[in-house]
Amino acid sequence: METLAFNHLLLKTAFSCMACDGEIDKREIKLIKRLHQEKGIFGEIDINEGMESLLIAINKDGHKYMRDFFHELTSSDLSESDELKLIEVAIDTIKADEKVEYSEIKFFKVIRSKLKIHNDQILEKHPDFENYLEQDIITDSYLARLQDDFFDTHSANKIDLVSETNNDIIDSLKENNEE
Hints:
Helix content: over 70%
Distance between the termini: 44 Å
Shape: globular
Number of helices: 10
Radius of gyration: 16 Å
Largest sheet: none
Order of helices and strands: HHHHHHHHHH
Number of strands: 0
């Protein structure tokens, strides 16, 4: 997959995991910005602009946004290392707010089901991910029900724009540095 397209898919994965529980926690935004600044995870993408664009799309029609995201995962030609990176970013984002809700695990399992990488390859590098990989997706019909259940129980809340929360994040970081 082309690097720029993959970086956008990575950002979309992080953003989707951040928003899948109906709210975006400031710690999740901090994680994405830290991954970008310290590790260059999303390449040359303007993170603020990218998240704003995704936020507008999810607020317009959250279910369509998520279905399109799942379709993009399925139709993308990803290498094993690309898939592993997607999984790492997804799990790191889900863990960022220090509360993992069932809806987030369910959402991750749908993401996982769209990828070809084997669990052994994931666990070899990340043995702590085992709980996220426990098999409860048995058949295609069960997977379809799981995905439909996500949409049935997921409320498509309007989420504040990233630019509106940036000042709060900056103030919070300043307070932490002053302490």
